[in-house]
Design brief:
Oligomer: single chain
Largest sheet: 4 strands, antiparallel
Number of helices: 1
Number of domains: 1
InterPro entries: Biofilm_BssS
Number of strands: 4
Distance between the termini: 23 Å
């Protein structure tokens, strides 16, 4: 999958929890857009989450993302 990134406990990267998101289609361009709202500092309330920029993906990329999310959920629910 083109957007797949394997996460491990050994990576030393900051993690920003999602608080919410906006997602929807742009039919005339056949794109799905996604805009995450994220917590950028400890103690920050979800209502005060940072709102990111919009990210666009093709239908195929959205399907790949769905499969990657489903695979990660399966691992976590074992």
């Amino acid at each position: 999958m083109s957007g797949e990134k394997v996460m491990s406990d050994e990576q030393n990267e900051n993690i920003y929890p999602l608080a919410n998101w906006d997602i929807g289609p742009i039919e005339e361009h056949k794109l799905v857009v996604f805009r995450p709202h994220f917590i950028s500092s400890p103690g920050q309330a979800a209502d005060d989450a940072e709102v990111s920029r919009y990210y666009a993906m093709t239908v195929e990329q959205a399907k790949e993302l769905r499969l990657a999310l489903e695979s990660a959920i399966v691992v976590l629910e074992r």
